[in-house]
Amino acid sequence: MPRFRAILDTMPAYRPGKAVVSPDGRSYKLSSNESPYDPLPSVVEAVARAATEVHRYPDPAATALTEALAERYGVPPEHIALGAGSVTVAQQLFETVSEPGAEVVYAWRSFEAYPLLADLAGATSVRVPLAGETHDLAAMAEAITPATRMVFVCNPNNPTGTVVRSGELKAFLDRVPEDVLVVLDEAYREYVRDADVTDGLTVYRDRPNVAVLRTFSKAYGLAGLRVGYLIANEPVAAAVRKTMVPFAVNHLAQAAAVASLAAEDELLERVETVVGERTRVRDALIAQGWTVPVTEANFVWLRLGERTLEFAEACAAEGVAVRPFAGEGARVSIGTPEANDTFLAAAAAFRDA
Ligand code: PMP
Questions:
Q1: ipTM for the whole complex
Q2: pLDDT score of 18
Q3: For 275-296, what is the mean pLDDT?
Q4: Which of 218, 226, 298, 334 to mutate to test the pocket of ligand 1 (most atoms within 8 A of CB)?
Q5: What's the pTM?
Q6: DSSP single-letter state for residue 299
Q7: Edge-to-edge strand order for the sheet containing 329-333?
Q8: Which residues carry this modification: N6-(pyridoxal phosphate)lysine (predicted)?
Q9: How many Cβ atoms sit within 10 Å of the Cβ of residue 52?
């Protein structure tokens, strides 16, 4: 038997959202914050064209995609580092900054992968509890020690959907020592409508220790192809590029991402619809008597405590898969109007039960 690293025995498992089917055959997957829409025909065509070339390795530098992103955001291509989904870019960030004993600060609860990646990297997680479902940036700044190498600010936060506001973020960034990398995880940026939430891309240039993490998995609907990226000043982006496993972003993914940027107007219209549904779902939940934090992402958060798993089961019986965090609450993605209505009916029935 080979000897395995001891950390593997104690690491939390990543629990991906699963689809469920109701006894009468209905299935609505609201557990992974995906786009509820089928891929655009133009994107499917681009993938099909690229499929004829898969006997060759992909462009390791993803030149076309990097250039398309640079143009889209008005940044130099040197500021971009791509990865197989933003979770892989986050792993690359650990590879970039972390050594055994290094501390990584993040809010908790936040994105489930942070503790996992920290464990894998041999880093020590420093979890700062949310205050009222929102990042407590003052406490996070306090939690930084000389051993801290990186801080994640998930904005909007998964799973609560809450945001940190511009003034708070600036005050926080001003306090973080320059040798600590601050990662603004903006996986849900396209869904933000609150004008007082800083777009990381407007601040990173003046801050050598800030990196912005984005993804094609949510608003751009490419979760199944795995493309994410980081935008930061050149030293950070170059260091992260060095940590990429060669050819990590595959040929189909590169083609789909380029096609998605070309069809961005259509995709952002879909985002607008999801944002409208988000308001409708939250208002309806509040009318049912639930407390729902204001969400700027494509999901809502219900703090259910001990009733969380029971709630998830009640939703599953109606074919609605939600994402339960046992003892804490459930995160429910915004789906199609039909999926949302089914979820709302299940939530109402649960309250009345
Ligand atoms: N960051 C956050 C906050 C997320 O919620 C997710 C996906 N659940 C990711 C990053 C990773 O997404 P992907 O790897 O698909 O880009």
A1: 0.99
A2: 81
A3: 98
A4: 218
A5: 0.97
A6: E
A7: 299-303, 329-333, 323-325
A8: 218
A9: 7
